[in-house]
Structures are given as C-alpha cells and as structure tokens.
C-alpha cells in the first residue's frame, strides 16, 4: 500500500537515494532540503524548522506515515550542531503529530559510525540538555579541533548525541506508546558528496579505511545501501524494531568493539 514519507536531506547523497527508492516502490515522498526540494528549509534555524512543519502539514493534508531525518553536514562549525542534532530532533518532534493519523507510523534518523569516537564532553552535555545556545557556544570553543580519529569533534559529538536521543525516547509514550517505531542508522563510509573529496585520493581512502575497516564488500558503500535499510525501518513491515542504532558499515563497528553485544 502506498505510504507518504518525509525525507530531509533529499537533494543529495543518502537522502536522495532514499527518496528515489521509496518513490520507485510506489510511495509518495515529500523531500526537504536547503535547496532543490519540495520543501526548501534551512534546518539550522528556528524559522526553517517552523517552515518545515508548516509546509509538510500543508502538502500532506496533516498525515504522514514515515519521517526519515537524513540532513546533516560534517563541517567543524556551530551550524553542524544546528542541523545534525537540533534540526534532526525538531524534524522528529515537529512532525510526530502528523504520524498520529497513520496506522503504521515510523521514524528514522541518520547517526554515524563516528558516534563511536570520543565525544567533547562540554558539547555533549549541552546537546543532551537540549540547550541550543549553549551547544553553539561549545562548538565555537571547539572550533576546528579534531578527535583522536582526526575528524571534527563537533561532528562525532552531534552524532553520538542524536543516537542517544533515539535510545532515550524510543520507549516513551509519545513514541512506542503511540505505535511509532523510532530508530537510527549509523553508516560507515558511504559514497556521497560528503565523502567525495576524501575518497578521491589514496591517502584519504586509507584514512577513512583506518577509522571504518570494512571487510564485507570493501569500503565506501553506495548510498542505495543505507537507503534500503532506511526504507525498511520506516516501512509498515517494521512492527518491532525500535530504539536501535543499526550500523551499516561493512563490519567496522564489530571490529572496533567486538565485546559489545
Ligand atoms: N556519507 C557518509 O559516509 C556518511 C557516513 C555516516 C553518516 N552520514 C550522514 O548521512 C547523512 C547524509 O549525508 P550524505 O553523505 O548523504 O551527505 P550529502 O552532503 O550528500 O547530503 C546531505 C544533505 O543535507 C542537506 N543539508 C545540509 N545542511 C542543511 C540545512 N541547514 N538544512 C536542510 N538541509 C541541509 C544538504 O543540502 C544535502 O542535500 C548526514 O546526516 C551524514 O552525517 C554520512
């Protein structure tokens, strides 16, 4: 049966592949992005988040079946805090009322394998406290500092925080209690514009491989792979998976922390 999905980050990479996959399966997709989308909204701002909810309400007639929050960026900047964490939670919370009319409501957000990196404790605390001005201040302080893996400490901290948000809220009356499955996926390296520059050089590929060793089918999966996982987690078929962070990384997570069950 045809369903209506909202996909943020629909203009590029994983979000675009997800929208294409869902449409190919006969569903309706309301794509959201800062450019080239049905709903053009800057999810780093309060105005953009309000516009997202308003526009999706108008276009959907007040009912959607799935919300898939993919939009994100990797820049070492406070804007990354605004999109990856507060933009994602605003998408999920803001559109949750529209899921109430669905008989199989689902929500999924894209975290990252980077969530396994050491976090910046000051920023992590402000994110979990839902304090956006405080979190942006922490991001200003961090600046371009990197974590032990050599990537932006801001990026990895926002991704761990959004994964924790899913773990915390999935069981709540507003989510599981309302029949809404709420999950995250955590990709390793996916071939998209976000990783294109690094994947161009042998050095860049080696650095990515070191952080995300991928014995299953090699490094750098095509975006169709996470798109298929997102489509299933957001489908009516997913009746009992919730509160999970599903790694799609060719085995990297199991190599990095094999003791975790
Ligand atoms: N590519 C990877 O290897 C990888 C790995 C782990 C996680 N991820 C995550 O997957 C998601 C998608 O990334 P991608 O690789 O497809 O990158 P991408 O750059 O191809 O796509 C990201 C999309 O988000 C949109 N976006 C950015 N800022 C926005 C804003 N302020 N408001 C609205 N939309 C905005 C962009 O316009 C773009 O269309 C991101 O959350 C990213 O962190 C990617």
From TrEMBL:
Lineage: superkingdom: Bacteria
Range of residues in the leader sequence: none
InterPro entries: NAD(P)-bd_dom_sf, Sc_DH/Rdtase_CS, SDR_fam
The keyword Oxidoreductase appears for this protein: yes
Keyword rRNA-binding in annotation: no
PROSITE patterns listed in its UniProt record: ADH_SHORT (PS00061)
Gene3D superfamilies assigned: NAD(P)-binding Rossmann-like Domain (3.40.50.720)
Pfam families cross-referenced by the UniProt entry: adh_short (PF00106), adh_short_C2 (PF13561)
Classification of source organism: Bacteria, Bacillati, Actinomycetota, Actinomycetes, Micrococcales
Family under the similarity heading: Belongs to the short-chain dehydrogenases/reductases (SDR) family.
Name under which the protein is recorded: SDR family oxidoreductase
Alphabetical UniProt keywords: Oxidoreductase
């Amino acid at each position: 049966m045809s369903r209506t999905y909202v996909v943020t980050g629909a203009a590029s990479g994983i979000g675009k592949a997800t929208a294409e996959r869902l449409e190919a399966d006969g569903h309706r997709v309301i794509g959201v992005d800062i450019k080239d989308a049905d709903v053009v909204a800057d999810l780093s701002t309060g105005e953009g988040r309000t516009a997202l909810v308003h526009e999706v309400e108008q276009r959907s007639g007040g009912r959607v079946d799935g919300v898939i929050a993919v939009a994100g960026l990797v820049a070492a900047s406070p804007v990354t805090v605004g999109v990856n964490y507060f933009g994602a939670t605003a998408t999920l919370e803001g559109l949750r009322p529209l899921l109430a009319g669905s008989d199989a409501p689902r929500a999924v957000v894209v975290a990252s394998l980077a969530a396994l990196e050491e976090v910046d404790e000051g920023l992590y605390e402000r994110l979990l406290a839902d304090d956006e001005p405080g979190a942006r201040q922490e991001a200003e302080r961090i600046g371009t500092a990197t974590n032990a893996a050599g990537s932006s400490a801001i990026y990895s901290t926002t991704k761990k925080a959004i994964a924790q948000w899913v773990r915390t809220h999935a069981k709540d009356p507003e989510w599981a209690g309302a029949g809404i499955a709420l999950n995250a996926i955590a990709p390793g390296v996916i071939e998209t514009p976000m990783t294109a520059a690094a994947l161009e050089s042998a050095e860049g590929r080696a650095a990515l491989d070191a952080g995300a060793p991928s014995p299953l089918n090699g490094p750098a999966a095509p975006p169709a792979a996470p798109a298929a996982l997102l489509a299933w987690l957001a489908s009516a078929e997913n009746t009992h998976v919730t509160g999970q962070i599903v790694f799609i990384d060719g085995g990297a997570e199991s190599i990095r922390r094999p003791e975790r069950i």
